[in-house]
Amino acid sequence: MSESTDAAADTIPAPRSAPLPLPPTTVPAGPEDGDVTDAMEEAYWSVHDGAAASATVRQVLARLPRITALIGRLAWQADRASTLTAVVCQLASAAMAAFGLIASVGVLQHLFAQGPTPDRVRAAIPQILLVAGFLAARALLEAAVSVAQARVTPKIRTALECEFLSLTAHVRLEAVEDADWHDEVHRANDRGLFYARMIVGQVVSLASAALGLVGTAGVLSVLHPALLPLLLLSVLPVGAAAVHSARARFHSFKRWNALQRRVRVFSWLLLDVDAAAELRSDTAQGALLDEHRRLTVRIADEDTRLGVNSALINLAGRAVGGVGTGITYTALAAMLIAGWLPLAAGAGAVLAIQSGRSSLTQLIEFAHLVYEHALWVDDLLAVQERSRRLLPRTANVRAPEKVKEIAVKDVYFTYPGKDTPALDGVSFTLRAGETVAFVGLNGSGKSTCAKVLAGLYEPQQGSVSWDGIDVREMDAKSVHQQVACVLQDPVRFPFSALSNITAGTGTLTEAEPQRVMTAARAAGADGVIAALPAQWKTLLSKRFKGGQQLSGGQWAKIAVARGLYKAAPLLLLDEPTASMDPPSEHAVYEAVLRGRLRTDQITVLISHRLASVVDCDRILVFDSGRIVESGSHDELMATGGDYAAMFTLQASGYQPGAASAAAEEAGR
Fold first, then answer.
1. How far apart are CA 40 and CA 51, in angstroms?
2. I want to staple 643 with a disulfide (CB 3.0 to 4.6 A). Which of 12, 270, 579, 636 is the partner?
3. What is the pTM of this model?
4. CB 608 within 8 Å of CB 446
């Protein structure tokens, strides 16, 4: 066997303990048997769906007072006058309902005490008018509750959303980069804010049902104390049926969510613009459509089964409720025959019991909704509280608008969950007017060091000082304001071209025209903007009418212009020209590295294209979180170390036949 064959064999991974068998001739694209939701992981935004269905009645009832108090506190903070109006009118409305029932009994007494004669009908007119008055007053009060609710609910949502976004937008970078934090924040944003708006009306309806039930009990106790047990006998079966029905609906909804997520995997692929070209070139649409159809048929069967089960539960509940109502009315008839209760009072009791049944059903329905939706609101408030603990430091000392020297001394930084440090004792000094390049392999610590310089990460050991002052003594926001970062994948703001440049200075609406033009010309963005339909005012997003979509290279020019416009004392360029064409890249480096738009600025360039760092004043070579070489291009080439080997390897790629020899030489 030849030497080259032996070397190739050394690169082949060792065989596994058990050899991989041939694949089967057919394989399912998804679950074939059993529950089609079993293969789905629970989504971060559905963790509380159906929580009320698994909670006991005692758990739900025990938590309702705290939930009501929470919503009341939020409403009071948002609009005290409207909240007070809603509470007072809700109580008055419940009182009107109770008085209306009592007045209705009075009408019945006038009409049926000794038969409905014309005289008794005329005598009952004042009582009828009183009933009508109570009903009208209740309608007005409920309208007042709705108006107050309409005023306070949007204010609660606005206050919560503004505070939530303000907090989460300012938390430290390491929190944002945590996957669990990402899920929590998006869950709070997607569901917490949505249910925070809905839950106010639900609490109002819950209170209305509870007060209605209390009012009904009060009316019955006035008519005859023995009627209270009859109310329980009538409403408890209905309540039990309502609980089972509500839980069945919650379970059904949770399953429906999982089923829809399963089938949307295919619909998303069929509609996704990024997958469109490959789907068509592979003619894979038919296979996806077949699997989509198979799943939708199964989902339809599941929906039918769930619907039938729900109907049977409702039927059983109504049957039990009917038995309870029959017993109630039998007992009521016995009371009438025994003379315990006048006929008019008996008719009033029937009205009260029917009202009580309706109130209890609503109470259970809204109790389940409020219980579950409050979990989402609690999530939202918990994220806000956690965000307050993750905000960057504030201090009276502000970062200077000009800096002569930035000293990095023995800095260590390790990412959460990692054992190997990303920065392992890094030390160097940057001076005003200097351009310094960070180079090295992927994962060597270049970008991490840049983020430490920008104040996005704090050193776990060591220090970063601006003119002798540790940045940890400065207000974090002020440090960020004095650093301009241009990244390889910049943010594509869906705003005007001008706003995309001024955003780096904290404004979307104000600009310094000459300064903008200078930055745009230096970055090559002036030509991009000149070709747009409305030039500076053109919206850079297809989501808007007349909006334009830029290419990756064009966006890179806009991002460089944004960084230059900020005119910060520290400019960090992290692979800023990776998507640019060669002439554009050359123009940017001419402006940034040789044109020196600001002579007192410190410029740090991170690049894998070593030809772009040749003219830098110094080059720092990173390896495994340490700086292993430092010097100018000529000095590093003369030492023949790692930088020289990488540069030679890249340069040989532009010379036919030389790449293999350079690679072999670099590997020695």
1. 18
2. 636
3. 0.69
4. no
- Under the banding of pLDDT at 50, 70 and 90, the label for residue 167 is confident
- DSSP state for residue 418 in the 8-state scheme: -
- C-alpha 373/C-alpha 192 separation (Å) is 8
* 281-334 residue pLDDT tens: 878 778 888 878 887 887 777 778 777 877 777 777 677 667 767 777 777 777
Give the span between the Cα atoms of 457 and 437, in whole angstroms. 20
| Residues contacting residue 197 through CB under 8 Å, at least 6 positions apart | 153, 154, 156, 157
Question: CA-based Rg of the chain, rounded to a whole angstrom?
Answer: 36
Alpha-helix residue ranges (DSSP H) falling in 224-284: 227-271, 273-281
Q: What is the pLDDT of residue 620?
A: 92
Q: β-strands 570-574, 618-623: how paired?
A: unpaired
* Cα dist from 359 to 67, 149, 214, 323, 499, whole Å: 20, 20, 9, 19, 55
Asked if 167 contacts 387 with a C-beta cutoff of 8 angstroms, the reply is: yes
State the Cα–Cα distance between residues 300 and 256, nearest whole angstrom: 10
How far apart CA 336 and CA 333 sit, in angstroms, is 5
- pLDDT confidence bin for 11, thresholds 50/70/90: very low
Residue with tokens 């990488």: 646
Write out pLDDT tens, residues 339-351. 776 666 666 777 7
The pLDDT of residue 665 is 52
> Cα(358)–Cα(651) distance, rounded to whole angstroms?
83
**Among 306, 325, 332, 347, which residue's Cα sits nearest to residue 239?**
325
